[in-house]
Amino acid sequence: MPEPQTYSGGCHCGQVRYEVTTDLAQVIACNCSICTKHGLMLTFVPATAFKLLAGEDAVADYQFNKKRIHHQFCPACGVESFARGAKPDGTPVIAINVRCLEGLDLGTVKAAPFDGRSL
Q1: How many other C-beta atoms are found inside a 10 Å radius of the C-beta of residue 90?
Q2: Hey, is 35 helix, strand or coil?
Q3: Residue 46 three-state SS
Q4: Does the predicted model carry a pTM greater than 0.85?
Q5: In the prediction, which pLDDT does 115 show?
Q6: Within 13 Å of residue 48, how many CA atoms lie on the same side as its CB?
Q7: Which one of the record's GO molecular function terms can you name (predicted)?
């Protein structure tokens, strides 16, 4: 199992910035309508492993379907670098767009397919 690392990440223009600690052991490529259109590769972390450094007042929120996930995106450049949600027990969780992590060679990341379209 990979060791947890702290990564910096954010949107394209830099208005939204964060740090996240994750081991990237589970990365998914979801086939739901929004993940497909955005090309998202996601890993999920507890909210305690995520720190929003910039953009708290700037991020826009989009919800669809069952409205359980808050897709947070930068209104300036349009990039969704993370989303907020909760586990079935109510524990807050952050979905990290792995493509927005700096210094990460995406060729080393194995994304498992996830059938979000059927949920």
Answers
A1: 7
A2: helix
A3: strand
A4: yes
A5: 82
A6: 1
A7: carbon-sulfur lyase activity
Q: Total domain count for the chain?
A: 1
Contact 117, 35 (CB under 8 A): no
Distance between CA atoms of residues 119 and 115, nearest Å: 7
CA distances in angstroms from 23 to 49, 75, 109, listed in the order given: 11, 29, 11
For residue 101, give the CATH number of its domain.
2.170.150.70
| Domain enclosing residue 23, as ranges | 5-118
As beta bridge partners, residue 30 has: 114
Which residues contact residue 117 at a Cβ distance below 8 angstroms, ignoring those fewer than 6 apart? 31, 32, 33
Q: Report the alpha-carbon distance of residue 52 to residue 105 in Å, rounded.
A: 22
To which residue do tokens 């493509």 refer? Answer: 99
Write the pLDDT tens digit of every residue in 79-106.
999 999 999 999 999 999 999 999 999 9
